[in-house]
Amino acid sequence: MHLHVHGRSEALARLASAGWGDRSSSRLHLPVGGRRFRPCLEDIIEVCIVEKIVKPQRENWKEILDTYRDAFYRKQLKSAVRRDPHAAVSALDMFGVAKQITVTERVASLRMCSVDNMLLAER
Q1: Of 1, 9, 22, 31, which sees the most CB atoms within 10 A?
Q2: Which are the contacts of 36, defined by CB distance < 8 A and separation ≥ 6?
Q3: How far apart are CA 39 and CA 30, in angstroms?
């Protein structure tokens, strides 16, 4: 998802002339995030590469960004669930998933969330 801004900006005009030729700065695709979360750094980096504002440093740049973007979204989802676990259980119940998950699996999953958060904090 993205938006276009129609207006004048000296900074965007300089970027336009440096990165993507004669195209108007109003044609720049500005990310607005996914359906649930706001844009992440990976979205901004991808726009800069796709719009030829910067050159990718690796051939597999898209795969790398997707991996880190997925990790960001997982972390955001875990935070949302942690903030309102009753809503999460209610949503899982609507799909019949909550009944399939045993108490042991829920405890193990919570422990994994804690381990994931510790690993992310170490990066």
Answers
A1: 31
A2: 73, 76, 77
A3: 10
Residues shown for the chain:
123
Give pTM, 2 decimals: 0.59
HSE value, Cβ hemisphere, 13 Å, CA-based, for 107: 3
Only one residue has tokens 């979205």, namely 43
Give 37-84 pLDDT, tens digit per residue: 788 889 889 988 988 888 999 999 999 999 999 999 899 888 888 888
Sequence-ordered strand ranges (E) for the chain: 2-3, 30-31
Q: What are 102-105's contacts with CB under 8 Å, separation 24+?
A: none
